[in-house]
Structure formats: C-alpha cells, structure tokens
Specification:
The protein is an all-alpha fold. 78% of the residues lie in helices and 0% in strands. The chain starts with 7 loop residues before the first helix and ends in a 7-residue tail after the last helix.
C-alpha cells in the first residue's frame, strides 16, 4: 500500500479553510474584545471558525472525517444563508457545490483513502 499524493486542489482548499478560519477567528475575536461582551452567538461563531481551521489541518493529513466535516461546515453556511438575502444563499450554494466537487473527485477520494484500492 503506497501513500497517495495529495491533489493540488485538496491542498489549496485545505489552506483556504485554514486561512478563512484564522482570519474569521481573529476578526470576530477582536470584535468581541472591543465590545467587552461574550455573547452566546459570538462564542458559537468562534467555534465555527476553529472548526474550519481543524478541517483544513486534518485534510492536509488525509483524514477522511475532515473532508466530511469541511462539507458539513459549508453546508451549515448554506442553511444559515437561506434565512438571509438570496444572493448570500446563492453564493454559499455555489461555494458548497465547488467544494463538494473538489473533495469528492476520484483523485481526492484516493487521497483520503490513503492510497488503498478497493477489491475488484
């Protein structure tokens, strides 16, 4: 069994998750700190940002659960944006479709399986 090479698309997407999570965490944390108020929804936003960082980090390490969590993270954004403006919902839906396409292509599936092949 040989370890599969990480597809470039997975590498880029994982670093995007890490970057978005980090930037979002810092932005929301400074906003919370400026208001001197730890509200329940603000804490949940921070948790969601940490989840993005975890997804990216573990996708780089070929953990299959991280791929599914990354999909769920984006799907959550689609659901939440459904209650807002239509253009937000449309953009999140397009991002979700692109992420699903990138994470579930054959090369990505092989990578997340760790190079194992299915019996014929």
């Amino acid at each position: 069994m040989t370890r599969s090479m990480r597809p470039l698309s997975v590498t880029i997407l994982a670093w995007v998750y890490i970057g978005v999570g980090t930037i979002g965490f810092v932005f929301h944390f400074t906003d919370i700190h400026a208001r001197n108020a730890f509200q329940y929804d603000a804490i949940l936003i921070e948790v969601v940002e940490v989840v993005a960082i975890v997804c990216g980090a573990f996708m780089l390490r070929s953990h299959n659960w991280a791929r599914w969590l990354a999909f769920a993270w984006m799907a959550l954004h689609v659901v939440l944006s459904a209650f807002g403006a239509f253009h937000e919902f449309a953009v999140h839906s397009l991002f979700c479709a692109a992420i699903v396409w990138l994470l579930f292509r054959p090369a990505a599936v092989r990578y997340f399986r760790g190079g194992r092949t299915e019996p014929a």
